[in-house]
Amino acid sequence: MFGSGRTAGIFVTIGGCSVACGGSTVFALAKFNTNMNVGWTISGIILSVVVASPLVIFGTRLFQRGQRELKRLKMIKKQKKLLCILKAQGFAQIDELTKTLQTDPADVRRLIYDLVQQNLFHGYVNWEDGMLYPKPAVELQRATDCPQCGVEKNFKRNGVVQCQTCKAQIFL
Prior knowledge:
CATH architecture of the largest domain: Orthogonal Bundle
Structural class: alpha+beta
CATH class of the largest domain: Mainly Alpha
Number of helices: 5
CATH superfamily of the largest domain: Winged helix-like DNA-binding domain superfamily/Winged helix DNA-binding domain
Radius of gyration: 28 Å
Number of strands: 5
């Protein structure tokens, strides 16, 4: 489950802090009470440092991993929404996507490139006009001209290519 490490991390960190407090209390009592022997002092130090430190470190790492998972989940949800918009409308304006996805244009660009890299989106975009058009990869690879301006193309590779005439980026 996404983000579950956050909750577990919080509990483990709190547990580690509690053990550290307990160890510090034992250490303080042993230090200031002459009736307690050195064993109590050592036990307090062991609880405070040796047992509590790994718990706090492990809990912190669990929490950080959970944060990263939640961030990734938000990005996946935005990508899914972007693909749904493109499927429903057949095109999208970058400005409208920024409003709908509640993000900035640079983030929309990252989402698009990530989808292209995962081979989940094919089409073309004209960044100057701010328009994004999905198109099946087979159509783009078979075409002999740019889907934006119609000028003959020489796209011999897959991935992201740019038309030299209209500057549209084509995602093959």
